[in-house]
Amino acid sequence: AVARFRSMVPPDEVQLTVSSASDRPVRHDPKALNGVILNLLTNAYKYTGREKRLTVDISDDDGHVVVAVGDNGIGLTPAEIADRIVA
After folding, report:
1. Model-level pTM?
2. Half-sphere exposure of 83 (CA within 13 A, CB side)
3. Contact predicate 85/78, CB 8 Å
4. If you count Cβ atoms within 10 Å of the first and of the last residue's Cβ in the chain, which end, N or C, has fewer?
């Protein structure tokens, strides 16, 4: 997903940092996970201002592997987040 994203955007328009502090094996659907991460990166790119700084962090947390995509955009308000929560 990261390689695909990098091929889609001009390299001088975005600072993308990837860090991985996990070496755990993970059973997953590669196509689905790739699509999710690519979607998150694409949205972060679209909705971040002129100075685009994106991150992908992979870490372990209580026996799980966590993949977090971040950006320096304005983000969502607490009300917008509440409206998007799927029960």
Report:
1. 0.83
2. 5
3. no
4. C
Closest CA to 41 of 86, 8, 84: 8
Half-sphere exposure of 58 (CA within 13 A, CB side): 13
Q: Give residue-wise pLDDT tens across range 8-66.
A: 999 899 999 999 999 899 999 999 999 999 999 999 999 898 999 999 999 999 989 99
What is the 3 state secondary structure string of the chain?
Answer: CHHHHHHHCCHHHEEEEEEECCCCCCCCCHHHHHHHHHHHHHHHHHCCCCCEEEEEEEEEECCEEEEEEEECCCCCCHHHHHHHCCC
